Amino acid sequence: MTTSExxxxxxxxxxxxxxxxxxxxxxDKWTALVIYALENGSVRYxxxxxxxxxxxxxxxxxxxxKLERDGLVHRHITxxxxxxxxxxxxxxxxxxxxxxxSLRQWIRVHDSQVMAARVNFxxxxxxxxxxxxxxxxx
Length: 138
Prior knowledge:
Layout: H1 4-7, H2 19-26, H3 29-37, E1 43-44, H4 45-51, H5 57-69, E2 73-78, E3 84-89, H6 91-95, H7 97-125
Antiparallel strand pairs: 1-3, 2-3
């Protein structure tokens, strides 16, 4: 015998909608920052490293390889000694700029509201509990 909960099908699924693929593409902080760093054209590896605060060489290499695999970034190697490597957005990568700019604008406008909401939430739910379990309040 099944319960009504078991019969109910979810309306939103990870496998059934394309949103999870979008989130896979851009959800980590380094991916977004690399895309922003490339929005004005080709950039050499060392310049990318200098442009993006806090990113390590290992993480930058991992991120640009991931973006290259996803078809968002093109890597161009100039065969000189030593070789130079430049990265640029592909047309597919450039097509992400508009929605990402919209998200950047949204946070510029609403960041103070988000931060105020966090402070309010934390003050409300931390009054009686030093170690709150957020699930208890949902």
